[in-house]
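Q: Fold this one first, please.
A: Sequence and structure below.
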Amino acid sequence: MPVDHTTRPSTVDATALAALSGTWCLDPAGSAVEFTGRHFLVLPVRGSFPVRSGRAELAADGTLAHIEATVGASGFDSGNPQRDTAVRGPRFLDAGRFPELRLTGGRLDADASLTGRLEVKGRTTAATFTVEELTVRGERVTVRAAARIDRHACGVGGLRGLVGAELRVRVRAVFVREG
């Protein structure tokens, strides 16, 4: 059983992660995906997506073998119903045709960056998250990470002149050991 601890990694210690080897299931209720963007290129807009499912596999040597996570595009919420309906619509997320956003693949580098593939609206782009905190509590692991995502690269191009291209994404992912 792993020792309980919290770290704020600037580097990843594969030897320490080896104690966490195995398959981990994402706990949607304890996890969150939040974002901050810019409206009129100045005003901050904050919101969230509901976490649906996911899993991570760590190899015996502590390397990340695979990660996948799914969030619901139709659950986009910024607290403004008119904005939320527009963003879920075809000019932005097109949640009716593409109800989920997915992160797959994954490589955890020594500098605490997690690189994977982000799928939005059927388009896949590279995404790099910086792991800011890793907390181990028995058979539960909480990972806090952040990334800057270019929404245009993801095919979300509505209102280019009024809405900024960059989104700051923050993730809290709670994993529970499988089995």
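Q: Good. Now the second chain.
A: Here it is, same layout.
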Amino acid sequence: MKSAARQAKSTPRLIAPPVGPFARHAPSLAADGWSVFPVTERGKKPLAGSHGHRDATTDQVQIEKWTRAHARSNIGLRPAAGVLVVDIDSAALLAPWMNERDLSLPPTRVVRTNRGSHYYYAYASERSLVSKIPGVDLKTSKGYVLAPGSVHESGRIYRVWRDLPIAELPAEWLEHIQQPKPKPRPPVVTRSGGVSVGTPGLRLVRLLGVKAEGERRGFLMYAIGEAYRVYGGSADLIERLCNTAISIGLSPTEVDAARQYIEEQETS
């Protein structure tokens, strides 16, 4: 007959599954095709040392690792390409703006947030989007939102309010939220007096690449501003600047923040 000590030793211990918003909701969101990643508990900032929305994935192996390590984290959700989240913080400000332009938001997937709603739409635009709408932010694959199941610092839970298929954003919305069409690129005069129509602003990219460590972020912001002011918001030039900034040591999170800040300043 086994002693009590031996019996206790041979009995397998049950390990409780991880508990928290990320552990509870991230695996099913990823299984449904949403790219997710952990953010701070009861917050929305990326975790220290992470790459923010660039880490978002549907890979269940990675999700399982995060579930064990960050079970209590909130869930960041990066919209897929072609998906726009209309983040409404103030319906009272949005309603008169829509009425003046005879616009409406068709029924679609809606998530209730702490003080507003996330409306999910499919859209097609070759230009970047910028929000000039009072009480509203626009989130695309260049950013992220908190997914349903996340918990606000107040204790309110983000919940799916309307579980509908994602609708198409009406075309008339695009004229109000697209970046202005790029201005014609100015010609570059060569030493010989001829005109070159090569890559605009390439000098800005070269200068950024040789900046000292403490000067990089400031010059990146200046250069992106020049891309808007001089080169009509050239997407190619801005992308080159951001890639160069990452290659010389700035983090993707720093670069995204700088890009977004200048974009808001130059297009508001």
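Q: Anything worth noting on the second one?
A: The mean pLDDT is 87.
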